[in-house]
Write a structure and sequence with these properties.
Elements lengths: L8 H15 L6 H8 L3 H8 L2 H20 L9 H18 L7 H8 L5 H28 L8 H19 L6 H13 L1
Helix pairs in contact: 1-2, 1-4, 3-4, 4-7, 5-7, 5-8, 5-9, 6-7, 7-8, 8-9
Length: 192
């Protein structure tokens, strides 16, 4: 009979997420995870199987947290334009609030791991798709209420907005100010 878990799963999930988000997949060792969580190596392996399993768990946990944080934007404000503008600015504001200006963990995974680990790549694609779906629903709302006048298919516009936002998040890691980033967001909004 397996022994029951004797740790706070939510707390450990947050700690594993933060360790990978701060130090990357390759920069985090199993020992780092044990030290950060206070779990023994055997408890860590029982919980996640291996380091890749812990990273998959962190990506999944991150996706759920971000989805819960971002989903209210689907109904935010009085127009789709207002909702999309707020979402884009708030993503950048959230990044600037971090001392290290950390960007999206999913972007980290795309750049660092890519397709080297198929299951992580699939989870990354799923996370990206959820955010793109949210952007698409906001674009559809904006087209329906007339606040977004570009008649291109909403999915194509959502992909454009998502790609620009991803690039801006990477750029914002080293930018001296957020002036150019915010100006770019405003330019994107004029295209819609």
């Amino acid at each position: 009979m397996p022994r029951p878990k004797k740790f706070d799963a939510d707390l450990v999930s947050d700690q594993v997420l933060d360790e990978f988000w701060t130090n990357s997949f390759s920069g985090t060792s199993t020992d780092d995870l044990c030290q950060r969580t206070g779990l023994s190596r055997s408890s860590l392996y029982n919980a996640f199987s291996n380091k890749s399993g812990a990273y998959r768990h962190a990506l999944d946990h991150y996706g759920k947290l971000k989805d819960a944080q971002r989903s209210p934007y689907a109904e935010y404000g009085s127009t789709g334009r207002e909702a999309l503008t707020a979402l884009l600015h708030d993503v950048i504001t959230g990044q600037l609030a971090e001392a290290d200006r950390r960007t999206c963990l999913v972007l980290h995974a795309c750049v660092e791991i890519g397709t080297k680990e198929a299951d992580i790549a699939e989870l990354t694609r799923e996370n990206l798709a959820v955010f793109e779906d949210l952007i698409c629903s906001i674009v559809e709302r904006g087209q329906a209420d007339g606040s977004l006048r570009n008649s291109q298919p909403p999915r194509e516009l959502a992909r454009l907005v998502h790609a620009v936002l991803n690039g801006l998040q990477v750029h914002q890691r080293v930018a001296e100010t957020d002036e150019n980033t915010r100006s770019t967001i405003n330019t994107v909004m004029t295209l819609l």
